[in-house]
From TrEMBL:
Protein's UniProt name: ECF RNA polymerase sigma factor SigW
Single annotated GO MF: DNA binding
GO biological process assignments: DNA-templated transcription initiation
Keywords: Sigma factor, Transcription, Transcription regulation
Ranges where the RNA polymerase sigma factor 70 region 4 type domain occurs: 102-152
Length: 159
């Protein structure tokens, strides 16, 4: 593959999926720097997986979500005992118009619920697809969606 074409493919994937990866990272971390580290590691892995560049968009998207979730878990494990700054006090730049207030409400939920709600409602994955991506039982996904929605109603009602 021509180097120029390869670079264009990679840049297109970064531009297309950057916001999605950013939001998934943002769900996990209370520190903007940790979320940025996760984002960077995900796209380094994409850069090193050149065979992914020519796959269909849905396959790339699913792969990026899986890598982002796994990377965020790895980073979170490493940083578990480190002090963090409150992300709510930081200014977070973003390019697209997006309802960050609702994402913030989702982010206040425990991670196992916010992760499922985000992927189901924001990224549009079905329950069966979430079973494959998250490697969880279908009934677990369903109950996490139900409980997460109930908690989210309480959070939104309080605001």
């Amino acid at each position: 593959m021509n180097l120029l074409i390869a670079n264009d493919l990679y840049v297109n994937h970064v531009e297309k999926y950057s916001d999605m990866v950013t939001r998934i990272c943002y769900l996990r971390f209370n520190c903007l720097a940790d979320a940025e580290d996760c984002w960077q590691n995900v796209f380094i892995k994409l850069y090193n997986s050149k065979e992914m560049w020519q796959k269909p968009d849905e396959e790339i998207r699913r792969w990026l979500i899986t890598v982002t979730i796994n990377e965020s878990r790895d980073i979170h494990r490493k940083l578990f005992r480190r002090n963090h700054f409150d992300i709510d006090k930081l200014v977070i730049p973003y390019i697209e118009k997006f309802d960050w207030s609702l994402l913030y409400a989702v982010r206040t939920l425990p991670y196992k619920y916010s992760e499922v709600i985000y992927l189901y409602h924001y990224e549009g994955y079905s329950i069966k697809e979430l079973v494959e991506i998250l490697k969880r039982n279908e009934n677990t996904i369903k109950s996490q969606l139900k409980r997460g929605r109930e908690m989210l109603k309480d959070v939104i009602k309080d605001e």
